[in-house]
Amino acid sequence: MGGDGHHVHGHGGGGEVWDVLLPLTAVLLPAGAYLLLAHRAHRRNHARRWSRWRTAGFLTGCALLGAALLPPVSTFAHEDFRGHMAQHLLIGMYAPIALVLGAPVTLLLRTLPAARARRLTGLLHSRPVRVVTHPVPALVLGTGTLGVLYSTPVYNATMDSPDLHRLVLAHFLLSGCLFAHAVAGPDPAPGRPGVPARLVVLGVAVAAHATISQLMYGGFLIDVRAPVSQVRGGAEIMYYGGDIAELLLAGALVATWRPSRRPGARTAAVRFPALRRLLLNPFMRPG
Question: Comparing C-alpha atoms, which of 233, 252, 235 is closest to residue 60?
């Protein structure tokens, strides 16, 4: 943790234009593709319209991603560690939750020809995909790499290399989407364990984020070349902003939970009517 501040990526005028066009393309292309697929899904089956809530969720994710990648947030992120942490949360936690709740894989399966849909389903059931989409590997790829980023020279190197910086941002987004999908995604995930196991993994993620942010605030095992006030501010943003994101993910897990349909199985909501009433109306008084 040093005191010489952030490095601003040096670009000419053409570089500044590219820094705007590239993020815009990265945001508008998936948003346009999603809307096109939603339109096709509606044309193929008028009686089974694609959910507007799913569409709103995916577009919200694209908007959050755009807000993180474009000025003023992107400029703030290059100049101040607190801006970097805000950008990290938007790209790695908030945008992925919204994108995943848009169920893009399910939408794609609805619009593909039957043969291609079967091939995609087979890919989703393959061993490599089942391993990667399990919550534990997703946790390691996402939260586990934060320690490497902030306790080694990697973060400082990203401030001097625009290409490395973009690579780290892409990692934030992909690992965040993977974790959100593994924990609470509505898309098919054959390797996904039950709700209790996913809640445990989410709890580990909460504890890991809290530990890293507290170490960062205290200046322990952290290699970030920025003023102490910025590092502590970034640690606070990570601590409180991460908690809010993980609460949203827990809410998404409850919202997308589908109880077991096995014969003779009774869900907790059936066995405990009071719990069922509380889940349906969390503001209702017990009794």
Answer: 252
Predicted TM-score (pTM) of the model is 0.84
Q: Give Cα 28 distance to the centre of its chain.
A: 18
Give whole-number Cα distances, 91 to 43, 97, 128, 249, in Å.
33, 10, 25, 15
Q: Is 129 exposed, middle or buried (0-12, 13-18, 19+ CB in 10 A)?
A: middle
Q: How many angstroms separate the CA atoms of 124 and 131, rounded?
A: 10
Using CB atoms within 10 A of its CB, is residue 196 exposed (0-12), middle (13-18) or buried (19+)?
exposed
Angle CA 86–249–123, to nearest 5 = 105
pLDDT digits 0-9 by tens, 150-164: 999 999 999 889 889
Residue 132: burial class (beta carbons within 10 Å; 0-12, 13-18, 19+): middle
